[in-house]
Specification:
This is Low molecular weight protein arginine phosphatase. The chain is α/β, with parallel strands linked by helices. The protein has 2 domains: 141 residues, 3-Layer(aba) Sandwich (Rossmann fold); 65 residues. The protein has 8 helices and 4 strands, in the order E-H-E-H-H-E-H-E-H-H-H-H. The chain has a 4-stranded parallel beta sheet with strand order 2-1-3-4, sandwiched between helices. Helix 4 links the parallel strand 3 and strand 4. The radius of gyration is 19 Å and the shape is elongated. The N and C termini lie close together (10 Å).
């Protein structure tokens, strides 16, 4: 069985709906959890999320949790609700890059997007490694003229990588699932339908 982690912002709307839907539709294939990049721990799912799931005869006792390394290590695959969530995870947990996708991207992506994402991941990993090296150099008390020059070149290289990352991001299609937080039941129903369609394709693909 695959361990699947869904990630959104507060872990009260989109990722809990995705978790509940996949548990319901793929219970013999997947173990499922969800978390949020800015979640507080212990909050229930939004009442509108609970309602649209109940309308599908899915009951779900949910408590929010913040993303952490234990969850990252547990997951075989991580599906985020937006590209921004994905980028935050990849920067915070670079070891997760090869298993992190937006849900839409994983289900709907084409070869051009896949090629661009591979280049994006490689550039991101290189940039993060350079940033780490730069921090070590700046903290080195033995810093001298030669080190300062190397720091300058490293900073310039990081800036070039960042430019490439931003250019690649601008070329990616819109792969976000709209956040219904603060919206009506109809907004939650729209988000749930979109997630449900993607979940059904995910189960079918496995």
């Amino acid at each position: 069985m695959k361990n699947i982690l869904f990630v959104c912002t507060g872990n009260t709307c989109r990722s809990p709906m995705a978790e509940a839907l996949l548990r319901h539709k793929g219970k013999d294939i997947f173990r499922v959890k969800s978390a949020g990049v800015f979640a507080g721990d212990g909050s229930p799912a939004h009442p509108n999320a609970i309602k649209v799931l109940k309308d599908r005869n899915i009951s779900f006792d949910h408590r929010s949790q913040s993303i952490n390394k234990t969850l990252i290590d547990w997951a075989d695959m991580i599906f985020t609700m937006t590209g921004n969530h994905k980028n935050q995870l990849c920067q915070q947990y670079p070891e997760s890059i090869d298993k992190t996708y937006t849900l839409k991207e994983y289900i709907l992506h084409g070869k051009d997007e896949e090629k661009g994402w591979k280049q994006f991941k490689k550039t991101m990993v290189d940039m993060l490694e350079k940033q780490s090296n730069l921090q070590h150099k700046k903290s080195d008390s033995r810093s001298n003229g030669d080190n300062k020059e190397r720091e300058k070149k490293l900073q310039e290289s990081i800036e070039k990588d960042m430019k490439i990352v931003r250019e690649l991001e601008a070329k990616f299609p819109d792969l976000d699932i709209k956040d219904p937080f603060g919206g009506s039941v109809e907004d939650y129903e729209e988000a749930c339908r979109e997630i449900e369609d993607l979940i059904e394709k995910l189960v079918k693909n496995f």
